[in-house]
Amino acid sequence: SDFMDSLRFHSGSKPEIGLSGTVVNLGAEDGSCNHGGIRYWMFDPANCLLLSYPGFRGVVLEGRAESFRDLRHRFSDKGDVLCSNEFVTPATVRQAILDAKPCNGLPAGEDAQEVRRSLLAGKLDLLKIDLDFGDCDMLEATVPWLRPKLVHA
After folding, report:
1. Is the CA virtual torsion 50, 30, 87, 85 positive or negative?
2. Which of 46, 81, 127, 153 is packed most tightly, with the most Cβ within 10 A?
């Protein structure tokens, strides 16, 4: 069964018991899902969760300025999705994730703080990495402290 179709939610608003509802997307491109579309090879499960499944929140990181503008706009109505426009290295990725700001441009509120608390507690459902370089190095730098349940790289 397809990963996205296998997710089930209570009352349409919260992830299943055992899931934190938190994702980190390193290489989020323009924030689109691309599930079954023309650009099917660019399917992004982290963006799909954040866009289509209530109760999911997290951090999206994109280094390219052109893509980041679209990404930020796509998530501008979600205070619990934090954005970062940085090119990262294994030495800087942790701080970039923790320093991400709400995509809507507003000051970080309780939603943003809850995302950070989940990350620092190692309560991460999905870590998606597609940086076109050094993905394995990023895995080594992030998995020990994020402790994701699932990795898509």
Report:
1. negative
2. 81
